[in-house]
């Protein structure tokens, strides 16, 4: 038998759940607005293997709710290129850029330029966000390891209370990444 007790005040607090739903819906709306401005035709011009955008909403990323906007969505280990915006409750708002092995070699100069603003993850999995954000990151790529299947760079973003200001921050970051993708 578990030794914990039910927190009935929490369970029966409709205001708390209404606020959580409201905030979750705002992030989904934010991501929908961003995705709506990135049609597949344009994304295919930036990266030929683009599969468009996708929004995901969940409740158990290391036991915390999250919302994700994936842009481009090429996860092939050789050709990967993806921009992921992650709103992770209790952890923050992040933007991750994933490059596959060949893409990272081709885009090395672009990645180097972006490292003035982003940091490199040294984790073995691009999906282990807890380890990625908890570890002190390195800004140096050094040489691209031919045995590495990917390079991922990321940045923590500070959202504003104001929807439009937060939208502007994200739009600016996406534009910055695309402007450096050559």
Description:
It contains 7 helices and 6 strands, in the order αααββββααβαβα. The chain is of the alpha+beta class. It has a 6-stranded antiparallel sheet with strand order 1-2-3-4-6-5. The chain is globular. The chain starts with 7 loop residues before the first helix and ends with a helix.
| Beta-strand segment tally | 6
Record the strand order, biggest sheet.
1-2-3-4-6-5
Termini separation? 58 Å
Order of H and E elements: HHHEEEEHHEHEH
Describe the secondary-structure layout.
Elements: H1 8-11, H2 14-36, H3 40-46, E1 53-61, E2 64-74, E3 81-88, E4 92-100, H4 101-106, H5 108-114, E5 119-120, H6 129-134, E6 150-157, H7 163-179
Antiparallel strand pairs: 1-2, 2-3, 3-4, 4-6, 5-6
Helix pairs in contact: 2-7
Which terms would index this structure?
26% strand, single chain, 7 helices, six-stranded antiparallel β-sheet, globular, alpha+beta, 182 residues, 38% helix
Summary of the model, kept short:
38% of the residues lie in helices and 26% in strands. The chain contains seven helices and six strands; from the N terminus they run H-H-H-E-E-E-E-H-H-E-H-E-H. Helix 2 runs parallel beside helix 7.
